[in-house]
Amino acid sequence: MTTSGGTLVLAPRDREPGPSRPPGPSRPPGPYRRLFAVPGARAFTAGNLLARLPMGMFSVSAVIMIAGQRGSYALAGAVTATGLAATAIVAPWTARLVDRYGQARVAVPATALAVLGSLALVLCVRHGTPDWTLFAAYAATATTPNTGGMSRARWAHLLKDDAAARHTANSFEQAVDELCFMLGPVLAAWLCAGFFPEAGTLVGAGLLLTGVVLFAAQRSTEPPVSGGTAGRRSPLRTPGMVPMLAVFLATGAVFGAMEVVTLAFADGPAAGAVLALQAAGSCLAGLAYGRARRTARLRTCLAAMTVLMALPLLAAAGTGSLLAVAGGLLLAGMATAPTMVTGMTEIQRLTPEGQLNEGMTLAVTALLGGIAAGSAAGGWTVEHAGASHGYAIPVTAAALALALSLLPARTTKARLS
User: Which residues span the membrane (predicted)?
Assistant: First the structure.
């Protein structure tokens, strides 16, 4: 304390502290930050992401590998369609075993069998075996477990009392699906073109097995098993489930046809990057949809998909420009994630307790069946009418999905809105 001209002056060290300023309101964490604050969520998501990346690689790798060696997109499309159809038959049984015995006990051996099928396909293509062996080898990959469904089942178990968080989790999972289908084709095309035609399938098989092993090792977040199945009804008998699966079947045809037609239209290393744009649009839309407080009706999403899927057709038929088609695919993809998130949420609502993995796998099975049909239809159209006209197939399939979504509202208890 000092004096200056009779005035008392406090030295800086003697000043009394003034009243503290109340801290400003802290910004609440976003929905995705809250999601990954759940213990164990980051660990199982990392393993599952690694396991799901090959899902966007296998069919593209098979088409490039088979078409390059045998000179026929029709054969390549038929082989991949056969594999997807086999998966559609086997996957629900695999999922039922997962619900009954647990993810870790079933997923790892099932994945090992699927990897052996992929290796068999590589050997058949490499050594020029008869065409029927390609169908048999690719069909052997049908035991691949539904890794996306298992991840969603974990979220449903961890967030069973928080509907808003489950919506965010479903949106995130769909964005992951699209991310894998965005990066997978690019990686597959790069591996097949830069190294050797079988490289995409081999790398995909290695990633799948590694990812499933890492995912299955996270036992703390694994949902409990449902026990015996005696006296329990199949999810197929739930009112509204079959109409929903029909919608997924038609939606799958959109994706299957789009992939094969785009591969034929681009016909080169750029095909993977062009396909990735559609997945990129869907991934961004999925993340944005996860932040939304209100969800859209399924029929609204399907209507938007039908309109947007016409853009690649107009670009291909009107300009013939690959750049224009790529832009159309980017916009078309923005309707995909909201459609899938809304549909999967409805499937979860319809599925009986303790059978969630089976219910979601039925949806994926219907989706794969549609992809198989779309792949075959797209390959046939490319062979007989050209790649530009092939883009009419996904538009038609999207319109069919929309029509199917409107019918059950009058005939079942399904809530398609």
Answer: 49-67, 73-94, 106-128, 187-217, 238-258, 270-289, 321-341, 362-382, 388-407
Q: Yes or no: say if 74 and 380 are a contact pair by the CB < 8 Å rule.
A: yes
At 10, the pLDDT band (50, 70, 90 cuts) reads very low
Q: What one-letter code names the amino acid at 83? A: G
Q: Which residues pair with 9 in a beta bridge?
A: 2
Give yes or no for a contact between 384 and 74, defined as CB atoms under 8 angstroms apart.
Answer: no
Which of 96-110, 173-187, 319-333 is predicted least confidently? 173-187
Give the contacts of 257 (CB within 8 A, at least 6 positions apart): 374, 375, 377, 378, 381, 390, 393, 394, 397
What's the whole-model pTM score?
A: 0.69
The number of distinct structural domains making up the chain is: 1
CB–CB of 180/49 below 8 Å? yes
Q: Is 102 left (phi over 0), alpha (psi -120 to 50) or beta?
A: left
- Mean pLDDT, to the nearest integer, of 211-227? 83
Compute, in degrees rounded to 10, the torsion defined by CA atoms 44, 48, 50, 54: 180
Q: Tokens 């080169």 belong to which residue?
A: 268
Q: Per the structure block, which two tokens stand in for 158?
A: 């961890």
Residue-by-residue DSSP string for 334-352: GGHHHHHHHHHHHHHHHSP
Give the gyration radius of the chain's Cα atoms. Answer: 25
CATH number at residue 80: 1.20.1250.20
Q: Tokens standing for 360?
A: 């979601």
Answer yes or no: is 334 within a domain: yes
On whether residue 7 sits in a domain, the answer given is: no
In terms of residues, how long is the chain?
417
Residue 217 has which token pair?
Answer: 């090792």
Residue 26 lies in a domain: no
Task: Summarize pLDDT for 93-141 with one digit per residue, the tens.
Answer: 888 888 788 888 888 999 999 999 999 999 988 888 888 888 999 988 8
Extended beta strands in 36-140, E state: none
Q: Measured at the alpha carbon of residue 110, what is the angle toward residues 105 and 114, in degrees to the nearest 5?
A: 160
Residue 310, domain extent: 41-225+237-411
d(CA 119, CA 253): 27
With tokens 């999601």, the residue in question is 35
| C-alpha 415: how far from chain center | 23
In a domain, 2, yes or no: no
- Residue indicated by tokens 């489950």: 166
Distance from C-alpha of 365 to C-alpha of 356, rounded to nearest angstrom:
14
